[in-house]
Amino acid sequence: MNDFVVFIFSHGRADNFFTLNTLKKQGYTGAVYIVIDNEDETSERYYKLFGDKVIMFDKAEAAKLFDVGDNFTNRNAIVYARNYSFKLARDLGYKYFIQLEDDYTSFVYKIGVDFKRIEKPIKNLDSVFFLLLEYYKSVANLKCLAIAQGGDFIGGKLDGTFTSLGRRRKVMNSLICSVDRPFEFVGRMNDDVNTYTESGRRGNLFLSFPNLMLHQIQTQKNKGGHSDIYKGFGTYVKSFFSVMYAPSCVKVAMLNTKHARMHHQVSWNNTVPRIISEAYKK
User: What is the structure's pLDDT at 138?
Assistant: First the structure.
């Protein structure tokens, strides 16, 4: 996969950095870069620990590439790196790339029937990334392909957001993209949700692959990264960004988990175009 690279986005977590070791432990041997910004006060620590694997970008320049959706001044958000990564991949000579965050502890297979799945650790990430990339290439209008997260399996089959093909029309966290299929992440917070809802309404295709799943440190439990901005504004503001971008299909509702909190709620019947089955053709 000479035309494929892994980007790991990080900020302020040089000494609390999981993903690189996870990739190595689970069999990834390809190109990888740790992407930091020039507003990170701990940047020298990254260079000391990871050397030439570190790439720094200008956050002020990246801010000119897209709409943050507000007049806040806090730029401690991942969306700048997400949008800049298309230019970065092109400048480095790569056609395809996967965006990862810095807090992944494992990648696993999800095996089973009827979404009652068991987990098996992946030991050959090179092969897994290759197959994901081949699938991505085979779907001409696919903008972005993601690995599932634990929350994707809440509710199982009855959740209704998996199609008969086992794909989900959303992307979060681990995002396979191409410089030849560019799109824009929007909004300072909840950028992935903002993007797959707002852009999905216009017919762009985003998919999650639920046969694979990643584990990561719980949001806002790991200091640094974009946890600080979420803590500063609260989950209601974070979730309401998606309402601003796609008010016809997203609302803010209570997420009734062990620790109840406000969260975005997507109405998929109002989000993406549907193709009527040939069975209904007159």
Answer: 95
